[in-house]
Amino acid sequence: MIVCIIPARYGSTRLPGKPLIVIGNKPLVMWTYNRAAESGIFDDVYVATDDRRIADTVIHYGGKAIMTADSHISGTDRVREAVADIECDYVVNVQGDEPDIPVALLKMLHEKLAQLDDNSLLTCVSHANADDAANKNVVKAVLNSRQQALYFSRAPIPCDRNGKPGIFLKHRGIYAFTKKGLERFCGLPHGELEQREKLEQLRALEYGMNIQCFLYDYKGIGIDTPDDVEHFKTLAGE
């Protein structure tokens, strides 16, 4: 059984109330929810939130919501609480600010779930351009020859000492775990690297878990700033 959890909180530091911003007659969080549901790969889809306004909105639009504590530092910690009483084999964490995540990407992830064990997680990367590389809101990834993550950073990595143009990869907002792997990850102390970069996936690397990546290129947009909202409104035909 595969469960999708979309963590969503009201108090975003960069864009407060982000999940409830209405774009094309529906709130941002429901764009992501509907994509997950449309993929057909999940036995259930939920939004996990600490805010009653978000939960009520999701239910109003026909979705399912789970209330969680307001003390979670990361989205994945919120996901763990949400699935604590749900019987499942795999848990997929889809970030609520990825409104146009392709259904084909979700299906590719589904095909790769068999790679997971209880000491690993699965995520997606795409090719990044020079603007992405310079943007601290875009998380870059460096992989080894087996497509496993070596590091993630908001800085433009890897650095080319000779100053020649290089290939950059950007991380996409999706993670898959076995349920036991999720519990292992969330049971680890918050790492120094995680806190410095404000990237929760670094906790896994810092404590020896494997992060298996797969490449899927698409021109999606993550919603982090008011400019991103306006850009997506244009894409949505508003």
Descriptive terms for the model:
single chain, 238 residues, alpha/beta, nine-stranded mixed beta sheet, 9 helices
If you had to describe this structure to a student in words, what would you say it looks like?
- α1 packs across α4 and α3 crosses α6.
- The chain is 32% helix and 25% strand.
- The protein has a single domain (2-235), classed as Spore Coat Polysaccharide Biosynthesis Protein SpsA, Chain A.
- The model has no long low-confidence stretch (mean pLDDT 92).
- It is an alpha/beta fold and 238 residues long.
- It is built from 9 helices and 11 strands.
- It has helices at residues 28-39, 52-60, 75-83, 103-112, 130-134, 179-187, 192-197, 201-206, 226-235, and strands at residues 2-8, 22-23, 26-27, 44-49, 65-67, 90-94, 120-128, 140-143, 149-153, 168-178, 210-215.
- The strands form 2 sheets. Strands 1, 4, 5, 6, 7, 8, 9, 10 and 11 form a 9-stranded mixed sheet that branches.
